[in-house]
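> @MW can you paste both from yesterday?
MW: sure, first one:
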Amino acid sequence: MKLSIYNRIFALGAVAVLLMTSTTSCNDEWTEEQYEQYAGFKAPLDTEGNSVGVTTVYVPFTRRDADGKALYGAEGLSSYKLPVIISGSTVNSRDRNVHVAHSDTLDILNQSRFANRHELWYKDMSDYAKYPSTLLLEKGNSTGLLPIELDFRGIDLSDRYVLPLTVVDAPEDGCIRNPRKHYATAMLRILPYTDYSGVFQAANVKFYLVSGGITDDEPGAMTTVQTYVVDENTVFFYAGTFNESSQLRKDYKIYARFEPFEEGGTRGQVTFYTDNERMNFVQNKKATFTIIEQPDEVQTYIVRRTLIINDIDYTFDDYSTAMGSVITYLIQGNMTMERKLNTQMPVEDQIVFD
Protein backbone atom coordinates (compact mmCIF):
# COMPACT_ATOMS: atom_id res chain seq x y z
CA MET A 1 0.00 0.00 0.00
CA LYS A 2 1.50 3.31 -1.05
CA LEU A 3 2.14 6.06 1.53
CA SER A 4 0.15 9.23 1.15
CA ILE A 5 2.06 12.35 0.28
CA TYR A 6 1.54 13.60 3.84
CA ASN A 7 2.97 10.42 5.34
CA ARG A 8 6.03 10.65 3.08
CA ILE A 9 6.62 14.27 4.08
CA PHE A 10 6.36 13.30 7.74
CA ALA A 11 8.85 10.43 7.27
CA LEU A 12 11.36 12.65 5.50
CA GLY A 13 11.05 15.27 8.22
CA ALA A 14 11.69 12.68 10.92
CA VAL A 15 14.84 11.50 9.13
CA ALA A 16 16.10 15.07 8.85
CA VAL A 17 15.56 15.71 12.56
CA LEU A 18 17.37 12.45 13.39
CA LEU A 19 20.36 13.45 11.24
CA MET A 20 20.53 16.91 12.82
CA THR A 21 20.41 15.40 16.29
CA SER A 22 23.14 12.90 15.42
CA THR A 23 25.40 15.59 13.96
CA THR A 24 24.94 17.85 16.97
CA SER A 25 25.69 14.95 19.29
CA CYS A 26 28.95 14.17 17.44
CA ASN A 27 30.06 17.78 17.58
CA ASP A 28 29.29 18.01 21.30
CA GLU A 29 31.52 15.03 22.00
CA TRP A 30 34.59 17.03 20.97
CA THR A 31 33.89 19.72 23.54
CA GLU A 32 34.58 17.22 26.30
CA GLU A 33 37.79 15.32 27.07
CA GLN A 34 37.91 11.99 25.24
CA TYR A 35 40.96 10.65 27.08
CA GLU A 36 42.60 10.98 30.47
CA GLN A 37 44.93 13.98 30.76
CA TYR A 38 48.20 12.23 31.57
CA ALA A 39 51.61 13.81 32.23
CA GLY A 40 54.61 12.58 30.26
CA PHE A 41 57.79 13.54 28.39
CA LYS A 42 58.53 14.08 24.72
CA ALA A 43 61.66 11.94 24.37
CA PRO A 44 61.39 9.62 21.34
CA LEU A 45 63.78 6.67 21.45
CA ASP A 46 66.61 6.26 18.94
CA THR A 47 65.96 3.45 16.47
CA GLU A 48 69.43 3.38 14.89
CA GLY A 49 73.01 4.37 15.61
CA ASN A 50 74.94 3.77 18.82
CA SER A 51 72.09 4.56 21.22
CA VAL A 52 69.14 2.40 20.21
CA GLY A 53 66.64 2.31 23.06
CA VAL A 54 67.54 5.68 24.59
CA THR A 55 67.12 9.29 23.46
CA THR A 56 70.26 11.05 22.20
CA VAL A 57 70.33 14.76 22.94
CA TYR A 58 73.11 17.11 21.74
CA VAL A 59 73.81 20.26 23.73
CA PRO A 60 76.70 22.76 23.54
CA PHE A 61 79.58 21.91 25.87
CA THR A 62 79.33 25.49 27.15
CA ARG A 63 76.15 27.54 27.01
CA ARG A 64 77.01 31.08 25.92
CA ASP A 65 75.15 34.37 25.80
CA ALA A 66 74.78 36.64 22.78
CA ASP A 67 78.26 38.08 23.43
CA GLY A 68 79.88 34.64 23.49
CA LYS A 69 80.50 34.62 27.24
CA ALA A 70 79.90 31.48 29.30
CA LEU A 71 76.25 31.81 30.35
CA TYR A 72 76.73 29.99 33.66
CA GLY A 73 80.14 31.44 34.50
CA ALA A 74 82.51 28.69 33.33
CA GLU A 75 83.31 26.44 30.41
CA GLY A 76 81.70 23.01 30.58
CA LEU A 77 78.44 24.26 32.11
CA SER A 78 75.39 23.83 29.91
CA SER A 79 71.67 23.06 30.02
CA TYR A 80 68.83 21.27 28.27
CA LYS A 81 65.07 21.81 28.37
CA LEU A 82 63.10 18.56 28.31
CA PRO A 83 59.58 18.89 26.83
CA VAL A 84 56.78 17.88 29.23
CA ILE A 85 53.33 17.22 27.78
CA ILE A 86 49.79 16.84 29.16
CA SER A 87 48.07 14.40 26.79
CA GLY A 88 44.40 14.49 25.82
CA SER A 89 42.00 15.65 23.13
CA THR A 90 41.47 19.05 24.76
CA VAL A 91 43.81 21.58 26.34
CA ASN A 92 44.95 21.22 29.92
CA SER A 93 41.89 21.74 32.10
CA ARG A 94 43.56 22.87 35.35
CA ASP A 95 46.80 23.97 36.97
CA ARG A 96 49.06 20.92 37.33
CA ASN A 97 52.34 20.41 39.14
CA VAL A 98 54.15 17.68 37.22
CA HIS A 99 56.38 15.72 39.62
CA VAL A 100 59.71 14.48 38.21
CA ALA A 101 62.17 12.06 39.85
CA HIS A 102 65.09 9.77 39.14
CA SER A 103 64.08 6.53 37.38
CA ASP A 104 65.37 3.18 38.65
CA THR A 105 65.00 1.44 35.27
CA LEU A 106 68.56 1.92 33.98
CA ASP A 107 69.79 -1.46 35.23
CA ILE A 108 66.80 -3.15 33.62
CA LEU A 109 67.59 -1.46 30.31
CA ASN A 110 71.26 -2.45 30.52
CA GLN A 111 70.49 -6.07 31.32
CA SER A 112 67.95 -6.42 28.52
CA ARG A 113 70.10 -4.64 25.90
CA PHE A 114 73.65 -5.76 26.72
CA ALA A 115 73.34 -8.74 29.12
CA ASN A 116 76.82 -9.52 30.47
CA ARG A 117 78.72 -7.04 28.29
CA HIS A 118 79.18 -4.65 31.18
CA GLU A 119 81.62 -2.47 29.26
CA LEU A 120 78.65 -1.35 27.13
CA TRP A 121 76.31 -0.65 30.02
CA TYR A 122 75.06 2.90 30.36
CA LYS A 123 76.12 4.79 33.48
CA ASP A 124 73.84 7.02 35.50
CA MET A 125 74.45 10.69 34.67
CA SER A 126 72.70 12.06 37.77
CA ASP A 127 75.97 13.30 39.31
CA TYR A 128 76.37 15.69 36.36
CA ALA A 129 72.78 16.98 36.18
CA LYS A 130 70.34 19.01 38.29
CA TYR A 131 66.62 19.56 37.69
CA PRO A 132 63.59 20.74 39.68
CA SER A 133 61.33 18.10 41.24
CA THR A 134 58.17 19.81 39.95
CA LEU A 135 57.12 21.80 36.90
CA LEU A 136 53.95 23.91 36.92
CA LEU A 137 51.74 23.72 33.83
CA GLU A 138 48.97 26.29 34.16
CA LYS A 139 45.40 25.77 33.00
CA GLY A 140 45.13 26.11 29.21
CA ASN A 141 48.79 25.19 28.68
CA SER A 142 49.46 21.56 27.73
CA THR A 143 53.23 21.77 27.25
CA GLY A 144 56.19 22.94 29.28
CA LEU A 145 59.98 22.65 29.46
CA LEU A 146 61.81 21.04 32.37
CA PRO A 147 65.15 22.89 32.83
CA ILE A 148 68.11 20.54 33.33
CA GLU A 149 71.45 22.03 34.41
CA LEU A 150 74.50 20.12 33.16
CA ASP A 151 78.10 20.11 34.36
CA PHE A 152 80.42 18.39 31.87
CA ARG A 153 83.62 19.30 33.70
CA GLY A 154 85.63 16.15 34.35
CA ILE A 155 83.24 13.80 32.57
CA ASP A 156 84.78 10.94 30.57
CA LEU A 157 82.60 10.26 27.55
CA SER A 158 84.21 6.91 26.90
CA ASP A 159 81.67 5.93 29.56
CA ARG A 160 78.19 5.95 28.07
CA TYR A 161 76.07 8.17 30.29
CA VAL A 162 72.27 8.27 30.47
CA LEU A 163 70.07 10.50 32.61
CA PRO A 164 66.98 8.44 33.61
CA LEU A 165 63.91 10.51 34.56
CA THR A 166 60.32 9.56 35.31
CA VAL A 167 57.00 11.25 36.07
CA VAL A 168 55.65 10.49 39.55
CA ASP A 169 51.93 10.19 40.30
CA ALA A 170 50.64 13.09 42.40
CA PRO A 171 46.85 13.23 41.94
CA GLU A 172 46.53 15.98 44.54
CA ASP A 173 48.57 18.22 42.21
CA GLY A 174 46.77 17.07 39.07
CA CYS A 175 49.73 14.92 37.98
CA ILE A 176 48.66 11.51 36.68
CA ARG A 177 51.55 9.54 35.21
CA ASN A 178 51.15 8.45 31.60
CA PRO A 179 50.70 4.64 31.68
CA ARG A 180 52.75 4.20 28.48
CA LYS A 181 56.33 3.61 29.59
CA HIS A 182 58.00 5.50 26.73
CA TYR A 183 56.04 8.60 27.66
CA ALA A 184 56.30 8.41 31.44
CA THR A 185 60.07 7.81 31.40
CA ALA A 186 62.87 9.64 29.59
CA MET A 187 66.25 7.92 29.12
CA LEU A 188 68.39 10.81 27.95
CA ARG A 189 71.85 10.21 26.51
CA ILE A 190 73.11 13.79 26.63
CA LEU A 191 76.20 14.43 24.50
CA PRO A 192 78.01 17.78 24.55
CA TYR A 193 79.39 19.17 21.32
CA THR A 194 81.90 21.81 20.23
CA ASP A 195 83.07 23.10 16.85
CA TYR A 196 85.42 20.12 16.61
CA SER A 197 83.32 17.16 17.77
CA GLY A 198 81.02 14.92 15.80
CA VAL A 199 81.10 12.25 13.12
CA PHE A 200 83.84 12.65 10.51
CA GLN A 201 83.74 11.04 7.08
CA ALA A 202 86.95 9.01 6.90
CA ALA A 203 86.84 7.32 3.51
CA ASN A 204 90.22 8.93 2.73
CA VAL A 205 91.85 7.51 5.85
CA LYS A 206 93.76 4.25 5.37
CA PHE A 207 95.32 1.91 7.92
CA TYR A 208 98.38 -0.18 7.16
CA LEU A 209 100.00 -3.08 8.96
CA VAL A 210 103.64 -2.43 9.85
CA SER A 211 105.96 -5.39 10.44
CA GLY A 212 109.72 -5.16 10.89
CA GLY A 213 109.66 -1.57 9.71
CA ILE A 214 107.96 -2.57 6.45
CA THR A 215 104.53 -1.18 5.64
CA ASP A 216 101.93 -3.41 3.97
CA ASP A 217 101.08 -2.27 0.44
CA GLU A 218 97.38 -3.16 0.80
CA PRO A 219 95.78 -0.77 3.29
CA GLY A 220 92.43 -1.25 4.95
CA ALA A 221 89.73 1.38 4.54
CA MET A 222 87.77 3.32 7.15
CA THR A 223 84.29 4.82 6.91
CA THR A 224 83.54 7.19 9.78
CA VAL A 225 85.27 8.36 12.94
CA GLN A 226 83.28 9.77 15.85
CA THR A 227 84.95 12.28 18.13
CA TYR A 228 83.85 13.11 21.69
CA VAL A 229 84.36 16.31 23.68
CA VAL A 230 87.10 16.71 26.28
CA ASP A 231 87.11 20.52 26.41
CA GLU A 232 86.42 23.41 24.03
CA ASN A 233 89.49 22.70 21.88
CA THR A 234 90.10 19.00 22.54
CA VAL A 235 88.27 15.88 21.46
CA PHE A 236 89.07 12.20 21.60
CA PHE A 237 88.40 9.27 19.30
CA TYR A 238 89.31 5.60 19.21
CA ALA A 239 92.45 4.46 17.42
CA GLY A 240 92.24 2.68 14.10
CA THR A 241 89.06 0.63 13.78
CA PHE A 242 88.22 0.61 17.49
CA ASN A 243 84.84 2.20 18.19
CA GLU A 244 82.20 2.75 20.87
CA SER A 245 81.18 -0.91 20.79
CA SER A 246 84.71 -2.21 21.28
CA GLN A 247 85.32 -4.01 24.56
CA LEU A 248 88.71 -2.37 25.11
CA ARG A 249 87.87 1.06 23.68
CA LYS A 250 89.09 2.92 26.81
CA ASP A 251 92.62 1.59 26.26
CA TYR A 252 92.79 3.01 22.74
CA LYS A 253 91.73 6.63 23.14
CA ILE A 254 93.55 9.23 21.03
CA TYR A 255 93.20 12.92 21.82
CA ALA A 256 93.16 15.67 19.20
CA ARG A 257 94.01 19.20 20.30
CA PHE A 258 92.92 21.92 17.84
CA GLU A 259 95.18 24.97 17.98
CA PRO A 260 94.07 27.86 15.73
CA PHE A 261 96.84 30.02 14.29
CA GLU A 262 94.93 33.01 15.68
CA GLU A 263 92.12 33.34 18.21
CA GLY A 264 88.82 32.34 16.63
CA GLY A 265 90.64 31.47 13.42
CA THR A 266 89.49 28.94 10.84
CA ARG A 267 92.94 27.42 10.28
CA GLY A 268 95.43 25.82 12.63
CA GLN A 269 97.30 22.69 13.61
CA VAL A 270 96.09 19.49 15.26
CA THR A 271 98.19 17.71 17.85
CA PHE A 272 97.40 14.05 18.47
CA TYR A 273 98.43 12.29 21.70
CA THR A 274 97.38 9.55 24.13
CA ASP A 275 97.69 8.85 27.85
CA ASN A 276 98.32 5.12 27.33
CA GLU A 277 102.05 4.44 27.01
CA ARG A 278 101.46 0.82 26.01
CA MET A 279 100.13 2.02 22.64
CA ASN A 280 103.59 3.39 21.70
CA PHE A 281 101.72 6.16 19.94
CA VAL A 282 103.70 8.40 17.56
CA GLN A 283 102.41 11.33 15.53
CA ASN A 284 104.66 11.24 12.49
CA LYS A 285 103.96 14.78 11.33
CA LYS A 286 101.83 17.75 12.25
CA ALA A 287 98.25 17.67 11.05
CA THR A 288 96.37 20.83 10.12
CA PHE A 289 92.71 21.82 10.08
CA THR A 290 90.67 24.20 7.97
CA ILE A 291 87.08 25.38 8.45
CA ILE A 292 85.17 26.43 5.34
CA GLU A 293 81.75 28.07 5.45
CA GLN A 294 79.71 28.70 2.32
CA PRO A 295 76.00 29.18 1.57
CA ASP A 296 74.04 26.33 0.05
CA GLU A 297 73.49 26.86 -3.68
CA VAL A 298 69.77 26.08 -3.45
CA GLN A 299 68.71 26.87 0.12
CA THR A 300 70.42 30.20 0.65
CA TYR A 301 69.51 30.33 4.36
CA ILE A 302 71.60 27.18 4.88
CA VAL A 303 75.34 27.55 5.54
CA ARG A 304 77.51 24.50 4.96
CA ARG A 305 80.26 24.44 7.57
CA THR A 306 83.01 21.94 6.72
CA LEU A 307 85.87 21.01 9.03
CA ILE A 308 88.78 19.33 7.24
CA ILE A 309 91.70 17.63 9.01
CA ASN A 310 94.67 17.13 6.66
CA ASP A 311 97.91 15.17 7.01
CA ILE A 312 96.73 12.62 9.57
CA ASP A 313 99.75 10.37 10.07
CA TYR A 314 100.31 8.32 13.23
CA THR A 315 101.29 4.82 14.37
CA PHE A 316 100.13 2.83 17.37
CA ASP A 317 100.42 -0.70 18.77
CA ASP A 318 97.47 -3.00 19.26
CA TYR A 319 98.68 -5.13 22.19
CA SER A 320 95.35 -6.82 22.96
CA THR A 321 95.21 -9.42 20.18
CA ALA A 322 93.88 -12.89 20.94
CA MET A 323 97.28 -14.53 20.37
CA GLY A 324 99.06 -12.06 22.67
CA SER A 325 101.18 -10.61 19.89
CA VAL A 326 101.56 -6.89 19.19
CA ILE A 327 100.39 -5.45 15.86
CA THR A 328 101.60 -2.03 14.74
CA TYR A 329 99.30 0.09 12.60
CA LEU A 330 100.03 3.15 10.47
CA ILE A 331 97.08 5.51 9.95
CA GLN A 332 97.25 8.10 7.17
CA GLY A 333 94.86 10.37 5.31
CA ASN A 334 92.39 13.19 5.88
CA MET A 335 88.81 13.40 7.04
CA THR A 336 85.96 15.90 6.98
CA MET A 337 82.88 16.80 8.98
CA GLU A 338 80.06 18.89 7.55
CA ARG A 339 77.23 20.63 9.38
CA LYS A 340 74.33 22.30 7.63
CA LEU A 341 73.50 25.35 9.72
CA ASN A 342 70.14 27.06 9.38
CA THR A 343 70.84 30.79 9.81
CA GLN A 344 67.22 31.29 10.86
CA MET A 345 67.63 29.10 13.96
CA PRO A 346 69.91 29.05 17.01
CA VAL A 347 72.85 26.69 16.38
CA GLU A 348 72.15 24.63 19.49
CA ASP A 349 68.67 23.74 18.22
CA GLN A 350 69.84 22.05 15.03
CA ILE A 351 72.96 20.01 15.71
CA VAL A 352 72.66 16.40 14.55
CA PHE A 353 75.66 14.11 14.26
CA ASP A 354 74.28 10.76 13.09
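MW: second:
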Amino acid sequence: MFFIGIYGFITRKNMIAILISLELVLNAVEINFAVFNRYLFPGQMEGMFFTLFGIAITAAETAVALAIIINAYRVIGNIEIKNLSKMKN
Protein backbone atom coordinates (compact mmCIF):
# COMPACT_ATOMS: atom_id res chain seq x y z
CA MET A 1 0.00 0.00 0.00
CA PHE A 2 2.92 2.30 0.73
CA PHE A 3 4.45 1.89 -2.72
CA ILE A 4 1.10 2.30 -4.45
CA GLY A 5 0.77 5.64 -2.66
CA ILE A 6 4.32 6.67 -3.64
CA TYR A 7 3.64 5.73 -7.26
CA GLY A 8 0.40 7.71 -7.28
CA PHE A 9 2.09 10.69 -5.65
CA ILE A 10 4.79 10.76 -8.32
CA THR A 11 2.63 10.11 -11.39
CA ARG A 12 -0.59 12.05 -10.75
CA LYS A 13 -1.13 15.58 -11.98
CA ASN A 14 -4.36 16.36 -10.14
CA MET A 15 -4.02 17.72 -6.60
CA ILE A 16 -6.93 15.63 -5.28
CA ALA A 17 -5.35 12.44 -6.62
CA ILE A 18 -2.02 13.43 -5.07
CA LEU A 19 -3.77 14.00 -1.73
CA ILE A 20 -5.40 10.56 -1.92
CA SER A 21 -2.01 9.01 -2.70
CA LEU A 22 -0.50 10.76 0.30
CA GLU A 23 -3.32 9.38 2.44
CA LEU A 24 -2.46 5.87 1.22
CA VAL A 25 1.14 6.36 2.32
CA LEU A 26 0.10 7.60 5.76
CA ASN A 27 -2.42 4.78 6.21
CA ALA A 28 0.26 2.23 5.34
CA VAL A 29 2.49 3.66 8.04
CA GLU A 30 -0.34 3.56 10.57
CA ILE A 31 -1.11 -0.07 9.72
CA ASN A 32 2.56 -0.89 10.29
CA PHE A 33 2.46 0.77 13.71
CA ALA A 34 -0.49 -1.38 14.75
CA VAL A 35 0.86 -4.63 13.28
CA PHE A 36 4.37 -4.28 14.69
CA ASN A 37 2.96 -3.40 18.09
CA ARG A 38 0.72 -6.47 18.01
CA TYR A 39 3.49 -8.90 17.12
CA LEU A 40 6.48 -7.42 18.95
CA PHE A 41 4.82 -6.17 22.15
CA PRO A 42 1.41 -7.89 22.45
CA GLY A 43 0.70 -6.66 25.98
CA GLN A 44 1.42 -2.98 25.34
CA MET A 45 -0.59 -0.33 23.54
CA GLU A 46 2.03 2.18 22.34
CA GLY A 47 1.61 1.25 18.68
CA MET A 48 -2.13 1.68 18.92
CA PHE A 49 -1.70 5.12 20.49
CA PHE A 50 0.71 6.11 17.72
CA THR A 51 -1.87 4.90 15.21
CA LEU A 52 -4.64 6.97 16.78
CA PHE A 53 -2.36 9.99 16.90
CA GLY A 54 -1.45 9.42 13.24
CA ILE A 55 -5.12 9.23 12.27
CA ALA A 56 -5.75 12.56 14.02
CA ILE A 57 -2.79 14.18 12.27
CA THR A 58 -3.93 12.75 8.93
CA ALA A 59 -7.43 14.16 9.39
CA ALA A 60 -6.04 17.61 10.20
CA GLU A 61 -3.66 17.46 7.26
CA THR A 62 -6.48 16.49 4.92
CA ALA A 63 -8.66 19.37 6.10
CA VAL A 64 -5.87 21.90 5.54
CA ALA A 65 -4.95 20.41 2.16
CA LEU A 66 -8.56 20.48 0.96
CA ALA A 67 -8.86 24.12 2.04
CA ILE A 68 -5.72 24.96 0.05
CA ILE A 69 -7.02 23.03 -2.97
CA ILE A 70 -10.38 24.82 -2.84
CA ASN A 71 -8.67 28.22 -2.68
CA ALA A 72 -6.39 27.27 -5.58
CA TYR A 73 -9.44 26.25 -7.60
CA ARG A 74 -11.11 29.59 -6.85
CA VAL A 75 -8.05 31.53 -8.02
CA ILE A 76 -7.00 29.43 -11.00
CA GLY A 77 -10.14 27.53 -11.97
CA ASN A 78 -8.18 24.28 -12.28
CA ILE A 79 -6.46 22.02 -9.77
CA GLU A 80 -3.70 20.52 -11.85
CA ILE A 81 -0.13 20.87 -10.64
CA LYS A 82 1.18 22.52 -13.81
CA ASN A 83 -1.21 25.46 -13.30
CA LEU A 84 0.03 26.30 -9.80
CA SER A 85 2.84 28.47 -11.18
CA LYS A 86 0.13 31.01 -12.08
CA MET A 87 -0.35 31.71 -8.38
CA LYS A 88 3.19 33.13 -8.13
CA ASN A 89 2.26 36.16 -10.23
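> thanks! Residues 59 and 81 are 22 Å apart (CA to CA).
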